[in-house]
Specification:
By secondary structure, this protein is mainly alpha-helical. It contains 29 helices and 8 strands. 65% of the residues lie in helices and 6% in strands.
């Protein structure tokens, strides 16, 4: 029994099965879909990342919510601005019983907020300028003031407000607190503009923008496919059946994700749009072959469809070799969705038993003759372009920043960009050196002292903000320090001199200092000293602009500074991620090419020698072209575009398989191109159109992803239609 006859005979049974599976997945979906933007799902699994996660859990006793203050007059360091800053701090303290820290607290120390406001009111702007000019002030200026600070004026400042560190893991409660902070502060200020830049609020805005995009883009992709299908099929019945099949496949994919307990982030929520573009290809090829050869056409196209679905799935599943959780999940769900589309399309679209009148193929025949006449020119041009694109592909950059997902038109995006561009120690740029060992030993301070001295000439380290147990103790002992405590100062000077323990200082003396610090302010100590006194960390604010080349230099210098210490922190995990992105790109591309070659060679080997390599060559070329194009267009490798090269192979191989099958069957270039090109054009057009719609997404990474894949598919189609037949002949 042929495949076509089997499908026709058992069609009703399988349609019932499809309905039952759909009902099953709908029941899962009814329990709710988890949507969240989690940074952890985009990070690789290795020692540096695990160390950073442990430090966040064990050392981060505060959940920092930065509050950006911009002066309407252009100078936050005047009387009116400082009073409004203190009013904000007073509101926060009254509602949370936690003291914020700002530049105003450095100007007026050791007083209540009411007292600070009264003192500032009595001062003139000239008095404030005199205080600012004192030496101790410069020590803290870069931690709170924008980089335009000239010794007298600054356009902006930040209030650092720290809530309980448990909020790092309790996202729901963190969001509630951030919303409460925004409500308490309000925005009715005469002299300053205020922006609360809480991490969970930002993540929520990203997901809200992503969901808003999908609500618009998914229906648009269906509408676009309808227009193309009307052109390809010529009737509404087949269009409606195709769309229904696509809708069911998307339900299956999302339901499968919920069954596996996946949390849908912007990368995973792009898969439905992807399936619309890819899944419709199967319906087009099935219908076109039935029109040409009746039900026997299904037999001719079934193996090609299975191979194309399999190789496409391999391209997606190759992402499971990555240590990045989101890429693994993206590969699994996309692969499941692809096979769901093929399975459903086979039983939905195989309905007609009679051939339709064949359409004239004047255009396809003209294209075929053009290719045959210009074989040498086309091959030479392809070779030259491949060399050019290869050159540019070698210089492609890698970038990663969770904030890249923020829509450009949102106010919070502009505020964050302002913060990162105008503050040396913007929140989030931090490297950490982990020092294991007995922190009660006097020798540990010599080690910390040496590391901090070595950090002094590091290009991307913000020296003023380095925090260790050594610098923390000095700050509590220094009469001009922001944390000055008289009792601690007296005890410290008894045992320490010039930042190092005196000759006769013992472990018990150091324990006495630590214990006193814990009594004065446990939160400060817990940020850099492990409670068992068996480990400490050095927190190092950095200013790399999150560029890969800068972070690479920073990482190298930190390694030289500390020898045996473990280096981690947010900025270092970003660098590790960039390295993992490059590794993932190479691995996924090689896996896709290798498995595709083995499959194609094993199936076609009896037909022609090296046909697997010949069939793969145009899509490998398309992968080179798209990486080179991305480099030319200044599109970096990111968590989304990292999949483009392997997808160029995995998606493009569909066109290669159909063209190769056609050539083996027809044994003639003209017949091969004329019998296959229109179906390939229709399937390529739907895929390109669907991915192009992502360029209208509110999230920049999805825009770039859509544009890159659309270009890659265009390259694959052109190379398979215009170049592959030349190689096959």
């Amino acid at each position: 029994m042929s495949i076509g006859d089997f499908i026709i005979k058992n069609r009703k049974k399988f349609l019932i099965l499809i309905i039952c599976i759909t009902i099953f997945f709908i029941s899962i979906l009814s329990k709710g879909i988890k949507y969240e933007f989690e940074e952890e799902s985009f990070l690789p699994e290795n020692e540096v990342v695990k160390a950073n996660e442990r430090i966040l859990k064990e050392y981060t006793k505060e959940y920092i919510v930065p509050i950006l203050i911009k002066s309407k007059s252009g100078n936050v360091l005047n009387k009116s601005n400082l009073i409004e800053i203190l009013i904000i701090e007073k509101k926060l303290y009254e509602n949370f019983s936690v003291m914020p820290i700002s530049i105003a607290d450095i100007i007026i120390t050791n007083a209540t907020y009411e007292e600070k406001i009264k003192i500032i009111k009595k001062l003139s702007d000239k008095n404030i300028t005199q205080i600012i000019s004192l030496p101790f002030f410069k020590k803290y200026a870069s931690l709170f003031l924008s980089k335009d600070f000239n010794g007298k004026e600054a356009k902006a400042t930040i209030i650092k407000f720290g809530l309980n560190g448990s909020l790092i893991k309790n996202r729901k409660y963190a969001l509630e607190n951030e919303s409460k902070i925004s409500a308490i502060i309000g925005d009715n200020y005469k002299y300053i503009e205020v922006s609360v830049l809480g991490l969970r609020s930002i993540a929520k805005q990203i997901m809200d923008a992503n969901n808003k995009s999908l609500i618009i883009l998914l229906p648009l992709s269906f509408i676009l496919v309808v227009i193309i299908l009307i052109f390809v099929f010529g009737n509404f019945k087949d269009v409606i059946i195709s769309l229904l099949a696509l809708a069911l496949a998307i339900i299956w994919m999302i339901g499968f994700g919920c069954l596996l307990d996946f949390t849908f982030n912007p990368l995973l929520t792009s898969i439905p749009v992807l399936l619309v573009g890819l899944g419709i290809d199967y319906g087009i090829h099935i219908k076109k072959k039935i029109e040409e050869s009746g039900i026997d056409g299904v037999d001719k196209v079934a193996m090609a469809l299975f191979l194309s679905a399999f190789t496409t799935s391999i391209a997606f599943l190759s992402n499971t070799s990555s240590t990045i959780q989101s890429l693994k999940q993206f590969g699994i769900l996309s692969s499941f969705g692809i096979f769901s589309c093929l399975f459903i399309m086979l039983f939905f679209m195989t309905t007609e038993k009679e051939k339709k009148k064949k359409r004239k193929k004047e255009l396809e025949i003209k294209i075929a003759h053009f290719i045959k006449r210009n074989k040498k020119i086309i091959a030479t041009l392809t070779f030259i372009l491949t060399l050019i694109f290869s050159f540019f592909a070698l210089s492609i950059k890698a970038e990663f920043d969770m904030l890249d997902f923020l829509p450009k038109e949102m106010k919070v995006t502009h505020d964050i960009e302002y913060l990162l561009e105008n503050f040396k120690a913007a929140e989030g740029e931090e490297a950490i050196i982990v020092i294991k060992g007995d922190v009660l030993e006097p020798s540990i301070f010599k080690k910390i002292h040496n590391i901090e001295e070595n950090l002094g000439d590091d290009k991307y380290v913000v020296k003023e903000g380095i925090l260790s147990i050594s610098s923390l103790m000095e700050d509590y002992a220094d009469v001009y320090g922001i944390r000055y405590n008289k009792s601690f100062s007296l005890l410290y000077k008894k045992y320490f001199e010039n930042g190092l323990p005196k000759e006769n200082t013992t472990r018990e003396n150091i324990r006495e200092l630590y214990d006193l610090l814990y009594r004065i302010n446990p939160y400060d100590v817990k940020r850099i000293l492990h409670e068992g006194y068996d480990e400490c960390i050095i927190r190092i604010p950095t200013n790399t602009q999150k560029e890969e080349k800068n972070i690479k230099i920073l990482y190298k210098e930190l390694k030289e500074d500390c020898n045996d210490g473990l280096i981690t922190g947010g900025i270092i995990t970003s660098y590790i991620l960039l390295k993992e992105l490059r590794r993932s790109q190479i691995n996924s591309l090689m896996i896709t090419i290798l498995i595709s070659f083995i499959i194609l060679e094993s199936i076609f080997i009896r037909k022609k020698k090296l046909i697997g390599i010949i069939s793969l060559s145009p899509v490998i070329i398309s992968a080179i072209w798209i990486i080179g194009t991305m480099s030319l267009l200044n599109i970096p490798l990111t968590i989304t575009t990292i999949t483009v090269a392997s997808l160029a192979v995995g998606l493009g191989i569909d066109y290669s398989i159909h063209m190769t099958y056609s050539f083996i069957r027809e044994k003639d270039m003209i017949k091969c191109i004329s019998s296959t090109s229109i179906a390939l054009f229709g399937s390529a057009l739907t895929t390109i159109a669907s991915f192009s719609l992502l360029s209208f997404s509110f999230l920049p990474p999805l825009k770039i992803f859509g544009i890159s894949i659309a270009i890659a598919i265009s390259y694959s189609f052109l190379l398979c239609v215009f170049v592959l037949p030349i190689f096959l002949e």
